[in-house]
Amino acid sequence: MTTTKANPTSNNDFKGYIPDLLKKLANHSGCNCDFKLQIVKDGKYGVQGENMEWNGMIGEVLRGVRITRLLSIFECVQLQT
To answer: What residue ranges do the domains of the chain occupy?
Structure first.
C-alpha cells in the first residue's frame, strides 16, 4: 500500500491491493459498509518491547484500536453471502 500524499486524509489518498480489496468488500452485494484507512500513529509494523507490550500496527490491533472497524466490514460481507 502506498499513499499519494505525505499526510493522507482520505481513503482516496491510498493506492494498492489493500485499499482496492477493502473498497470491494465494503461495497459487496450492496453492503455499503464504511471504512477509513489510516497510517499507524507511530509508523511501525510492530515490535514487542521489553515490557512485553507491542507497538505499531500489531499493538493497535491487540489493543482493539483497528480491528473493530475491520471486523465490521467482514461481518457485513459475511451476512450478505
So the answer is: 2-80
Nearest Cα to Cα of residue 38 among 7, 64, 63 = 7
Tell me: pLDDT of 32 over 70.
no
pTM of the model: 0.57
Task: Say whether domain 2-80 belongs to CATH 1.20.1290.10.
Answer: no
Residue listed under C-alpha cell 472497524: 69
Q: Give the span between the Cα atoms of 75 and 67, in whole angstroms.
A: 12
Cα dist from 36 to 11, 22, 26, 69, 70, whole Å: 6, 10, 11, 8, 9
Cα–Cα distance, 29 to 5 (Å, whole number)? 31
- Rounded Cα–Cα distance for residues 48 and 61 (Å): 13
